[in-house]
Amino acid sequence: MNINLSGKKYIETPEAAQLLGVSEHALERWIRQGAIPYSRSKGLIVFDEQRLKEWAESHNMTWMKPLPSEERSKPPVIRLSNAIRNGGVYNGVSGNDVESVLKSAVAAIHFPHDVDREELLEKLLERESMASTGIGHGAAVPHPRTSLKMHSSAPSISVCFLESPVPYNAVDGEPVFVLFLMLSPSTKVHLKMLARLGFCLRDESFLAFLRNTPDLDSLCQRVETMEKKMETTHII
Amino acid sequence: MALDSKFSKILSSLSRWIFLFKDEHFLLILLGIPIGICGGLAAVALNHSIEICSEALHVFHGHWTFVFFPAIGAVLSIFVLSVIFHEGSGHAVPIVIYSVLRKGGLLRFRSSVSHLLGCLCTISFGGSAGPEAPVVVSGSSIGSTIARLFSLHERQRVAMAGCGIAAAISAIFNAPIAGIVFTIEIILCEWSTVNLAPIALASVTATQTSRILRGNQIPFEHFPFEFTTLDVIACLGLAVMVSVIAVLFSKVLAFAEHTSSKLASNIFVRGIAGGICVGLIGLFAPDVLGEGYHTIRAIIEQRYAPTFLILLLLIVGKIAATSLTLGTGSAGGVFAPALVLGSMTGLCYWQMLDSLWPSREWVGGGCFALLGMAGMISGVLHAPLTGIFLIVEITGGYEVVVPLILVSVLAATISRAFLPASIYYRELMDRGQLLRPRTDARILADIDIQDVIQVNLTSIPPDTPLRDFSNIIQRTGESFFPVIDPQNGKFHGLVFVERAQPYLLSQELYDAILVEEIIEGSNAHVSLNDDLLSVMDRFEHERTDVLPVIEQGRFLGAIAKSDILDQYRKELIVQTTT
């Protein structure tokens, strides 16, 4: 609660304790000892925020501004199915090695206008040259190492079914038949999506389902049901 | 128009005065004045009362019935302290030091009278004790009470209690600097600009009050001394001798306090036994009774010259009488007895010198007595500055200052080598409460478990399978979890993610292991009232970073070493900057 007296912003003990990063108990002791500047308003101990901040600075004390409300509230749930809807499904992507497959995938996908295809391809190849993104069972998750400069903050996954399986240096050595090309606004989102995708690809029946090259809607539906399961069991 | 401007002028000057009054330093300095007056009055009142009562009882001196007088005094003193005022017995300065160091200078108002009355009974009936400590308690209690009336906070209250202490010493000895130095060197243990100004003002006021009431008399007259280099060198020997007596005095007093509480549980029996012993000593050596100022005066003026052997016996008698008086619970202090012992030791040393080198003209015995007094105060109280300034001021002479510094500093150093804590600090040190400002122990003592406890932890039932546990870890991201039985609330222990890693990485164990099976074996914990010093020991001993807080079998939360470090740093900053 803020009490406004003569234009100054006053805060009470709990908020002051939070700002200084100490417990209320410790703050109350400092008040008792007279170590910290405070004033009284209607019998209540209050702190002039500006003065308290100056005190904290002169004492090398941390001043923790409370997190902005949007970040403090629960982060928005990142859904794999939404990302696939953003990215789309593409069939018959041609090529006979990693480079040519990625090249034709980048060419085929309908990206937003601000995505530079050449830069993206370069980044994807750079990532593949470091370690293959083939995560086994015939699937690969090509992605750039650093997130691209994108206008949209929504992550996208473009699912590309290949014309024919391609050797991809995958962990299990199996040739790859499907690419999940991932573009994410941040590493955090990227890891979250990767975790969910990994969970799906561990499922034998889902892999069998993928082998039948499903269309966008049925793929999304299937992913949605699997995600619901993850959310109710608090797995990811 | 003219009226208007005049009115606003008055208002503005008035508001400036109110502003000054609101300023912390100005308010404290202002409050120093009434505390100084009260402290001065207390000192003069006690001094006069002792004089009057001793005068009235003087007719019995030398009579055999006087043997019982110290016992009567002890009973009265203990009755006043324990029954009427419900106070602790014995010499009282440690109480004041404890209050200043640990309770923000909080003292009860009744302490301003109780020790004065108790001490009056002790000294006027012949008990060997000093009136300084009771006046110090009285002054600091007045200061503390005034601070409470103005609802000052702890630091300011400590300054106000310090004002009372300085006032007491200043008024008794007519020595303002000694009052300030005593307060800062012995009681507050720190110099700070906030404290100094009000304490100085209280000291000055108290001195002036006592001068108005008693006249500006120097407590102990002396003749001018001529010091030669050889005299200064001879002072080295005096320092050694004084230290020996100081250490002996401190040890005997400690022994008396310790054994008397063991021998008799009833405080009155203790007091009577001690009193009769003192009376018996007094029968043979009446000079060891009372506060002994007249003896000091006689020695310095060289009106008093017993032989070397008798002086030695007197020293032993004074040590015994003082230990028996204070060690058995009578009110009083060690300051005046230390001065008496110092003057006797000084005279004793002079006689020794004189008989060893009779051809040489040594500086007077009175001078060595003064140096001995300074040395004894330094040795007994571990406070060389107090000794130096006290003697300089009460003799009103600066010619002794060179040997004075030498004796005081040496005596303090030598006795410190044999006694880790002075008479005032010993008790507090034994209780682990001698926490000087700005030290590690003090900072740890100020931090509470409540300051660092983590309470919003995710608790898990003991029969949770590892599979569910791994899900909980993923969901919460915490690094340790309390295992609590949801049925009866019983706390089983903490599980640490880090230590459960070997099991967590092998998925085939997920259903084979329950959480209760991977709880760390140790059941070390802390309770809310544990002090941080012992908690840190437990961290070291258990080689862990987190300990649960358990109160009456209930889990309240956990404390982590890292949180303590964080709070420690903040506490250090707060305590070391003003």
Describe, in plain words, how this protein is organized in 3D.
The complex is a heterodimer of chains A (236) and B (578). Chain A has 236 residues and is an alpha+beta fold. Chain A contains ten helices and nine strands. Chain A has helices spanning 13-20, 24-33, 49-58, 69-72, 80-87, 98-108, 117-130, 187-201, 204-211, 216-232; strands at 3-5, 8-12, 39-41, 44-48, 89-93, 134-136, 139-140, 156-166, 176-183. A five-stranded mixed beta sheet of chain A has the order 5-8-9-7-6. Chain A has a four-stranded antiparallel beta sheet with strand order 1-2-4-3. The longest helix of chain A has 17 residues, at 216-232. Chain A starts with a strand and ends with a helix. The relative contact order of chain A is 0.12. The model of chain A has no long low-confidence stretch (mean pLDDT 83). A two-stranded antiparallel sheet of chain B has the order 1-2. In chain B, a hairpin with a 6-residue loop joins β1 (480-484) and β2. The mean pLDDT of chain B is 88.
List descriptors.
heterodimer, A: 236 residues, 10 helices, 9 strands, 44% helix, elongated, B: 578 residues, mainly alpha, two-stranded antiparallel sheet, two-stranded antiparallel ribbon, 24 helices, 4% strand
CA-based shape of chain B = elongated
Strand content of chain A: 15-25%
Weakly predicted, low-confidence segments of chain A: none
Q: Return Rg of chain A in Å.
A: 26 Å
Please, how many helices of chain B?
24
Separation of the first and last Cα atoms of chain B: 47 Å
